[in-house]
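Notebook entry, structure prediction.
Reason for the run: the old model in the group folder had no record of what sequence produced it. Starting over properly, with the input documented here first.
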Amino acid sequence: MTEEKMTYVILVDKKDKEIGREEKLKAHQEGKLHRAFSVFIFNKKGELLLQKRAESKYHSGGLWSNACCSHPRPGFGIKEEAKKRLKEEMGIKVDLKETFSFIYKAKVGDLIEHEFDYVFVGKFDGEPKPNKSEVEDWKWLNEKDLRKDIKENPERYTLWLKIILNKVFKWKNLK
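New structure, fully documented this time:
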């Protein structure tokens, strides 16, 4: 099931208590707080796997982002959903570790991302086999080169990647 076919997101309060469901696009148009996840994959060299989102995505198409982001389906566990979407988007099956969660709210074009975001990290050293309807391209980048490129070309990256990145590298460097 692709993200665009997934109709509903789980609405939550600021403590992540489920308070309802909303059609995904409407939730983003109205900026309603909902549950989401972001997956970051590192290789043994410490490089981060990035995907270039397909142009056809309903927002942020053609931008570089972390390995996978989505919304859990109602009635399913968030870690299992993160692993499922990572496999669907990038063709990668790995164990994921939940690292932290946080709330962010930001305008993305005509939409508002207001998410209670669970961040997962995994390790992978193979070559991804991305779903071309989801992912236009992919690459591995080390922290220094990624930070430099984001500073020089911020328009090439998704908003949430820029928001989460410091927290992910801080967590990774503490481990």
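Summary: The chain has a mean pLDDT of 90.
The old model has been moved to the deprecated folder.
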